[in-house]
Amino acid sequence: MIAARNDGSPWEARITELMGRMTLRDKVGQMTQLAINVLGRGPRLYDSDTPFRFDGQMLARVFDEYRVGSILTAPNNTALTPGEWHRIIAEIQQRSMQSLGIPCLYGVDSIHGATYVRGATFFPQQINLAATFDCGVAAASAECCAREMRSCGLPWNFSPVLDLGRMPLWPRFWETFGEDPYLASRMGCALVGGYQGDDRERLPGTRVAACLKHFVGYGSPASGKDRTPAAVAPCELEEKHLRPFREAVAVGALSVMVNSGILNGIPCHMNRGLITGTLKEGMHFDGVVVTDWLDIANLCERDRVAADLRQAVKLAVNAGIDLAMVPYDLQFCRDLVELVEAGDVPMERIDDAVRRILRLKFRLGLFDAPSATDGVWLPEFREHAAVARRAAAESIVLLKNEGGLLPLDPGRSLLVAGPNADSKRTLNGGWTLSWQGETTDGMEQNGSTVLEAFGKRVLRLFHAPGVAYSPGGNGSGEVELDQTELLGMARTADAVLVCVGENSYTEKPGDTEDLALSEAQQRLVERISRVNRNIILVLNEGRPRLIGRIEPLVRAALWIGLPGSYGAEALADVVFGRISPSGRLPFTYPKYPHSLICHDFKHCERATGMDGAYDYSSRLSIQYPFGHGLGYTTFEYACFRASARSISPEESIRFSVEVTNRGDREAEEVVLLFISDRVASLPPDNRRLQGFRRIRLAAGQTAGVSFEVEASRLAFADGCGRFIVEEGEFVACIAGHTLSFEVTRTATIEQ
Ligand code: BGC
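A: This is the predicted complex of the input protein with beta-D-glucopyranose.
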């Protein structure tokens, strides 16, 4: 991919020519994004009639009068057919081209498939893609999603989420690639490549623009609740949270969305240092910076740093915002025109924003083909299901398998229980056919529920949920059902598959007060365990709900996260042994509510005490570590070697290891390389992930795996804006095998 350091994209002359013909009002209109409902006929601004019908007066106002440049999301937050999308986009583009000759930029959140398209393929959510440790399958999912979006005329995707999943209470934890910055960076770049292809100046009609979000620190609210303040130390921000953004910008991501919340005391939408300094100047980002939903208004109405909307607009636009996701009214346009006329917002700022927006429209080819080229849902989209299923299978993590209970013989009798057993909604999570995913069970025709998938393979299958989720958008309500019959069946079944976890949610409605798995679900497992110990616990959840109380009661446990519509078939493949599980946890699974930690902790978290009369040792209690994941075979690691004993900061070092499949069947294995600084001028992390590779080995087969690591990648942030790699000893580790090497000199590393 071409780097984002842009010394002039091929479109600059055309943009200059176009801008020369635009008035201030035209330019401000381009900087405005409205929700589609604003254009629809209906009782309120927030809702439209079904089926969606344009309001002629609003169309004229929005496009002819205000020259609005961007529209987002689906009418009434509900999925449409590809045909309906085609009709809507065609009308919008026709109006847009007719008024100013500039196409409209339509954006949606297709975060694991084309969210708002009926019949779309739903892939595993990001937390699952991370668990595959397979950038290839992640990129393939994104590519399929882009094809499906673009065939509906949707060119801009608010994805990927590059916030780190380091706060498990956060209701968008599952939208992340987990806690590790290296994994998130690699996966983020894979998704950008999958969405955009490899020519960021001329995207073909099958690709969409990515949007990295939410810049930055959004995923680490101290309270765990969505859109509440985050405090992240400067070195941690530089080294961990900014890294995925830096790398995804470097591979050419075309847009970035700003964190809705407050970071280190400052609302991100007014943070000029962050948006203009760090992102646009520091990272040489030449794409579009879009606000999050209503977040300029939030500067006055929520965060109270502005007395009125006009002051909020001034703060945000001067901070470096290019496009305002307003999304309901046109006051932003009026305010911004006045601010420029009064000299409170410089014209150069407007020109910078508009240039970026037009550049994106040119890059997307929208001037030549504003709507979908064909508008046809192609038969080959059916093949996307195979990608989704493979990704789901690779993401399933076998957490525990006492006495080899798994794989299960399909000839045995099986009771399937739990509130997640018969739901496509829970397999997919939020952003599926609607924002909260509450319509999935009625609307999703593809894939199957766990019950349906297992029903195809087991002759003697019984079902009783025991606990059910309350219907509706907010995923948290549950009811305990009569369990008499269930316990009767559990007594006689050979094994019980208990599908627990969470209902779908995202953002604020997903806030939780308690990370523990619900009391009703824990009680269900306890009751079943009194009559049958052959429990296979299936964790279908968006964040790691605590299971410390019930885990000792089950013989096998599988984390399936949010594997998408084909997750149930993939789960059946794993449970019945068609596939050996190979997913690895992309986060540290906590055991206690107040013992939340990530794998790259500081040594004081695990100190073994200090000399003297007092006990200062630290306790580290976790349920399962980052990278944990069992399979049905054993892999043996040997001959771990490094290409050198010492390297300079300009050199790289190659690590190699031999991996042998000691089992009696083919299986896949994820090889993880960690490196840690033995001593540094600031406390080093316990360890840092520096490489991963997924391999497939036949029974008895040995393969060599090697990793090339540049010394510059060992650098850490010094908290003063520099990255340094320091001379001294480093320890590399693969599967418990360690070796040390030396860096010969200290050096500052350019980012
Ligand atoms: C979310 C964003 C999303 C936007 C547009 C916001 O509420 O925070 O992630 O892209 O809505 O739908």
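Confidence is low (pLDDT under 50) at residues 1-6. The CA atoms of residues 635 and 661 lie 5 Å apart.
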